[in-house]
Amino acid sequence: MISIKNSHVLFVVSLVLNCMFMLVVLYGRRMGPVVYKQSHQLEKDVVFLQRNALSLVVDKPFTSEPAAMESSNNTRVNIITSSSKPTTRAASTNSCDEVNHFAFVKVHKAGSDTLAVMFQRFGDERNLSFVLPVHVWDLHWPNNLREKDYLPLKTDEFNILTYHCLYNKTIFRKLLPEKTKYITILREPYSQFKSTFNYFNIAHKMKERNVSNLAVENNFGLFLSDPDKYMKMMKIVYLPNFMAFDLGFRRDDRNDVQKVINFLQEIENDFTLVMIMEHFDESLIMLKRLFCWPLESILYISKNVRVYNHGVGKPNTTDPVDQKNMALHRSWSQIDYVMYDHFNRTFWKEVALEKRFAEEVVFYKSLNDDISAHCLKTPKLLFHVNASEWNEAFSVPMETCQRMKQHVSSYIKKLKDDYFALPNATIASPQNNNKASILLDDMEKKYQQKQKL
Predict the structure, then answer these.
(1) Cβ-Cβ contacts under 8 Å for 287 (sequence gap 6 or more)
(2) pTM of the predicted model, to two decimals?
(3) Confidence check: pLDDT of 36 > 50
(4) Nearest in space to 185 (alpha carbons), one of 360, 343, 295
């Protein structure tokens, strides 16, 4: 039994220890490393645009229980998470049904061409029905999809949408069956912006249009010094929060925190999987497990890999100028950073629920490298893959290699050729059948005329 005297001593010791702990905490907060100061970056991003005195209510529409979040600069922060997803999921089994109805919402410069070719091959090998663009290869991007932008349906229902198209829940739900699964991919925002700036050759266009008198290699930093000004001068409307824009976020809503929250909640609820480009192979294994696809369906050869123009370059963590530009971009496109950080963390939480995930990724990476090299060098030979715990035995014939090597645009042409070879009598469109048939006849004539040119 503890005496009163001993109890008093314990109380004093406990008080001293608590005081010492508080001093350590306060000292750490005041004198601690830069990592501590950075740990609030994402919170600052969520409560963004402070000039409007906006604040974030963390308990809606997401749950009120904040989860630890690993931000894109490897610092720990807190971010709200959705309660719409289950907290646990059984490991993947072979008892599920293959998903044949899905929409892939492409995000620019995030590995989406590589994925689009993979999805085209998946549907092509199964004779599935695509939402095919009337024009070259997009579905009215950067505007919402209209009925006249895609070829009329010739089967009972559409299976796959995989071309550039702004995500609009109402339009997609009206066009695609209820059982359709939705997937997309995100990329670290600064890398994605640099790749976009490079792809659209904005630095050179600034020089050509007399927007800048600087050397081309200096125009990237100049643009970020006042992006709204130069975007207006260049008549570009979609660069800030570009990934969010592709996913249907309205540019005019970026100052409204509640609308940002609603947008993130909608993506969280609508999409079965948000892949992460920096973890491309891991994302594909997750897709394979969620969609019950065979391993051969996620084989790929990288597409549209480009060399950066001088003055842009890949992100450089050791270059203070580049880090300054990244900070400028982050302040301009905060929604993309919040979205990427959130879904990156969500992805790894899902991975943690899977059994032997890392082992399958290692096996898949090695196999995909071997098959890619085979298809690029000796596609006439048959590549046989023995059965393993991750796959049944399969072979990769020359035809599969040819499909894997195609570009999105050439594959669209192939799918359109197949589409127009189908008889018009099988039309089962939500449109009036007579109207659809007349429209289709006209489209087919124009298409055939173009092929003769």
Answers:
(1) 183, 273, 275, 293, 298
(2) 0.76
(3) no
(4) 343
